[in-house]
Amino acid sequence: MNCCVVGLQWGDEGKGKVVDILAEDSDIVVRYGGGANAGHTVVVGDSRFALHLLPSGSVRPDTVCVITNAVVVDPETLIAEIAGLAEKGISLRGRLWVSENAHIVMSYHKQEDRLREESLGKNKIGTTIRGIGPCYSDKLGRSYALRMGDLRDLDSLRDKLKAIAEYKSKVFSAVYGAEPVDADALFESCSSFADKLLGFITDTTELLHRQIAAGKSVLFEGAQGTLLDIDHGTFPFVTSSNSSSLGMPAGSGVPAKLVDKFIGVAKVYTTRVGSGPLPTEQNNETGQYIRDRGNEYGTTTGRPRRCGWFDAVAVAYSAAIGGIDSVALMHLDTMSGMDELKVCRAYEIDGTETAFFTANNAKLSRARCVYESADGWDEDISGVGSFDDLPQNAKNYVALLERLIGRPITIIGVGPKRSQTIFR
Ligand code: GDP
Ligand code: IMO
Ligand code: MG
Question: pTM higher than 0.90, yes or no?
Fold first, then answer.
């Protein structure tokens, strides 16, 4: 059985935890898009791992991990993550494979990301400054792009880097008045990347097709969330890849029809980091209550996440475009202690009520939420192991979300640990 796990909101839904749990029954875990802008948390016993590039299956010593073509790979982060796991006694030698066609995030991409955001002032996107947009831009522009396979031929790479440094220096100086880019320093970095990473680079499309044909089970791990998708999210406040499940076939070279189940992950409330509309945002005590109890601070940047009520309009849209079969609902434990919970079931935009999400930024900014209310519960549910043992109001709340999303909720998170998970 092959599965794909994808976020249904604006990222940070708890994908790392869900993938880690499902990885127990998978042979291979695959990151198919995004880059080190992701921060996926996996808690194993007393250890907490925050993974940016490595698939969340990497903490399991026998799981094969694959990073496919559409991931933008920051070699510095990847090398640090491999070393970090090695320090904890977890080796990736012989079980991590990185696509030769994956594009490389270079230092000048991160610099460009920062310079552009700074120059935008209050209009900034609020990116993670991981060089994601600039790297994907270079990929689409083609002429000045670098792929992991380029690390195999350092002589040709030296020439490419010269041309890139010349071009970037002109742009940086003209647009931002910034220092020139040093081709020799870039070459030094690349030689060191090649030293450390060449043994992991391969044709991952061939690898995946051979393994699937041999009956191995593959788990695809989405990064970011559907509403941050470049084509179907809240543009321009999105990331630069197809971060919905629609990016999975293009990003990995494995057709969606070989995936048996698409699992969407959503929190029982909504969060967002960075700029852009967030219709259910609670910039008040309720939002702070959620932030404190849910520890809603960015895994990658440490920024406080914006918090709000569950937005069923947004999640139902993500489920629809993502072909979602079932939903993993995380952080139910975080909502204990609230008198009343609200759920957005429709938007009112320019006087018209609609239950279909709009990815049009201007329209979404004018959306007013139509809420449905549910009674809260006081009990600490972080130790509850079965759905039947949840307080009646918690069960009612889950049933309400299930009805509004229109998909079965089969996994419920009641805490960050593996054991704090209810299966239905
Ligand atoms: P991801 O990017 O989707 O993998 O999510 P993040 O790791 O960025 O953020 C999710 C956070 O919630 C992490 O700190 C997890 O350890 C934590 N978490 C996941 N599921 C649950 C849950 O059901 N309850 C609680 N309290 N924490 C959870
Ligand atoms: P995971 O995989 C939450 C957001 C950034 C910013 C926008 C663009 O952990 O869910 P980028 O650096 O991609 O150019 O930033 O996208 N963003 C995320 N938000 N979780 C993520 O990943 C994110 N990756 C990018 O905050 O608003
Ligand atoms: Mg995250």
Answer: yes
